Amino acid sequence: MKPFAFHEPQSVAGAIEALEAGRENARLIAGGSDLLGQLKDDLVHYERLVSLGAIEGMREFHGDQSGLRIGAGATLARLEHDPLLTGPYSILAEAARGIATPEIRNQGTVGGNLCQRPRCLHYRSSWISCLKKGGADCPAVESSHQQYLSVFGGAGCFSVHASDLAPPLLALHASAVVAAKGGERTIPLSEFFAGPEQDVRRENTLSRNEVLTAVVVPAAPEGWRGAYLKFRERNAGDFPLVSVAFGCSLVEGKMQNVRMVLGAVSPVPRPCPEAEAVLEGQRPDPEFLEAAANAAFAPATPLPHNGFKVEIGRALVLRAMSQVLELDDH
Question: Is pLDDT at 49 greater than 80 in this prediction?
């Protein structure tokens, strides 16, 4: 690992100031479970790391009738165990519980999970040049190692977003609170993530001197409940190959406020409005569930060696819907 200066400001304003002073050679660090691995593997190098660990306000976590405000510095373990995350919000605890290992959940943060870099094996190798590291092309397209690659295209880069928290937060219509020198702004989380068509070197819309400070979750519709499921190569401590967040309300036996978001199958978390439209206002009959699972993956264009993710995805969607609707597994 190459040497770097470590700064630990006491406020968000101080963190922004340190980022501005470091210009392109500065990077934020929270729990560090992703960034430190990249530094050790010589994938990236920054002359200055700006820690968020000493900023108390970043760890605030509270809720009321209007919803939740989750500080970006809150740990994944906090989400896993916090009593606020019950009812419609239990989908977040469910997602946090499946991330990595207890040791990493004690250190990793909400903001870090949302801002993590891709798990593409080509990006993660210091020996391989790729678009995300300033290379000329995407070598993954010709590789047989495509489990962490998109089945929904990629505008030149086919790496996928591996966040476990992003799909359920999007299903809950969450927003991101972003601080900059000029003040604070709140944007829908759907506008926070960025695909390669916007900037192949980045996965979100944060500028160099901005800080994700919190996630705001509005009150869920009455009776809404959800589930988050993921498929991974190993049962413990692994990243998703496919994931799905699904939820709805049942009103007089019919599905309402249907929401479905896929993870780890495209460069950004993927909402499924086509599948939601199949289910909205319908009774949870098997024919509609099958049609929704098919609709979710109808636009898929898998690479030569990852078509298996489409079949796994359909099965996972069916299982998530069955769990929420308390039906027998399909």
Answer: yes
Give CA separation, 35 vs 30, 167, 208, 209, 314, in Å.
Answer: 9, 22, 16, 17, 33
Tell me: the pLDDT tens digits for 188-225? 999 999 999 999 999 999 998 999 999 999 999 999 99
Which domains does the chain show, CATH number per domain?
56-115+161-218 (3.30.465.10), 225-325 (3.30.390.50)
SS (H, E, C) the chain: CCCCEEECCCCHHHHHHHHHHHHHHEEEECCCCCHHHHHHCCCCCCCEEEECCCCHHHHCEEEECCEEEEECCCEHHHHHHCCCCCHHHHHHHHHHHCCCCHHHHHHCEHHHHHCCCCCCCCCCCCCCCCHHHCCCCCHHHHCCCCCCECCCCCCCCCECCCCCCHHHHHHCCCEEEEEECCEEEEEEHHHCECCCCCCCCCCECCCCCCEEEEEEEECCCCCCEEEEEEECCCCCCCCCCEEEEEEEEEECCEEEEEEEEEECCCCCCEECHHHHHHHCCCCCCHHHHHHHHHHHHCCCCCCCCCCHHHHHHHHHHHHHHHHHHCCCCC
Cβ atoms < 10 Å from Cβ of 291: 17
Q: What does the alpha-carbon distance between residue 133 and residue 114 come to, in Å, rounded to a whole number?
A: 20
- Whether 330 has a pLDDT exceeding 60, the answer reads no
